[in-house]
Design a protein that fits this description.
about 350 residues; 13-stranded mixed β-sheet
């Protein structure tokens, strides 16, 4: 039963006006909502299915890769090789490794010519393959008329990962030494503090820092130290040079550091070529007595800084007050992009005195 919207009087079903106040009776109609389209089941949507499959594949790939990469077990590496070949006076040691830190020491070894010790560890993945050794070491020896040639190679297995390997090589300083040490990725350090004669030294790396520290050594040949990426440190103290020897130090990307102390006559002359494409060259030189020195410097995009005592010249070249002397050190330093820093001291202020 309708009612008047104005006065509230009850009206007949078919009334068009309120019989009391005359207000028209409003007619209302209620539209039924339009039926909506049925929802498409998610399980049948190809886009959703494709996304689910792709995510599933990615998750499985990550899990499998993690399983392969995850360390399953750690394997310790402990190997030692020694050589006691008789009647040897000259040793040529060729050593090559693809990834290890190599340290070479001169050390009295009693009856041994050299000893090679390999220490470290490696990790093996869950699906790492066989149970072999993480490293493979090969050594070939040949001795003719007192000249021994030893060729050694240290390789890492691809079924292992997370290598941490150090190779220590000890050579007998009583022998005349030719050292050729190469590493693809790893540091190489040569440390000599014994009376040792080097006929030649070659240290090379594709990526790794190289160092040679020669004290009380006799050099009768040339020295080459080269790396593609890494720093080179070359240090000498009171060495003897028989004849004329050349030292080549070169790094494509990295600094070259030279530190020389020489207060005794060299007997011969020493020429050092230091070069880097990208990096600085730092020279520390302290001489005395009848040892003269000359330093030349060149940089394309950098600066030259000198701190000199009893040296003459401005930046390049500079030379000691006694140059040329009975024995001389000449340093040629060149960098494409980087600075050259020189600290050169000639200690004597009086006439040079020959030192033995």
């Amino acid at each position: 039963m309708p009612y008047c919207r104005r006065c509230g009087t009850k009206l007949d079903e078919d009334a068009h006006f309120c019989h009391k106040c005359g207000t028209p009776v409003a007619a209302y109609s209620y539209a039924s909502p339009a039926p909506s389209a049925p929802l498409k089941p998610i399980r049948n949507d190809p886009v959703v299915i494709g996304a689910v499959v792709l995510v599933s594949i990615l998750i499985v790939g990550v899990v499998v890769a993690a399983l392969f990469a995850a360390p399953f077990s750690n394997v310790n590496i402990e190997q030692t090789y020694q050589d006691d070949t008789l009647n040897v006076s000259n040793l040529t040691l060729n050593f090559e490794t693809n990834a290890a830190q190599v340290n070479v020491f001169t050390q009295n070894l009693n009856n041994n010519n050299f000893v090679i010790g390999i220490q470290g560890s490696a990790s093996k993945g869950m699906f790492g393959g066989d149970n072999g050794s993480p490293v493979k070491f090969t050594l070939y020896n040949d001795t003719v008329n007192g000249v021994q040639t030893a060729t050694a190679k240290l390789e890492q297995s691809t079924t292992f990962s997370r290598y941490n390997v150090v190779c220590n090589i000890y050579v007998n300083p009583a022998l005349t030494l030719n050292l050729n040490i190469t590493s693809q990725t790893g540091q190489i350090n040569l440390i000599n503090d014994k009376l040792t004669t080097f006929e030649s030294i070659n240290l090379k790396a594709s990526a790794g820092s190289l160092g040679a520290n020669l004290q009380n050594a006799t050099v009768i040949g040339n020295v080459t130290i080269r790396t593609q990426v890494g720093t080179i440190d070359f240090r000498t103290s009171q060495i003897v040079v028989e004849g004329n020897s050349t030292v080549d130090l070169h790094s494509n990307t990295g600094s070259v550091n030279i530190d020389i102390t020489q207060t005794k006559t060299l007997l011969g002359n020493l020429k050092i070529n230091a070069a880097t494409e990208l990096g600085s060259i730092n020279v520390g030189l302290s001489i005395d007595g009848d040892v003269g020195a000359k330093i030349l410097s060149q940089t394309n995009y950098g600066s030259i800084h000198t701190n000199q005592q009893h040296f003459s010249g401005n930046q390049s070249p500079i030379q000691s007050d006694n140059y040329p002397a009975a024995s001389n050190i000449e340093i040629n330093s060149r960098t494409n992009l980087g600075s050259i820093n020189i600290n050169a001291v000639y200690q004597s202020t009086s006439s040079p005195i020959l030192r033995n």
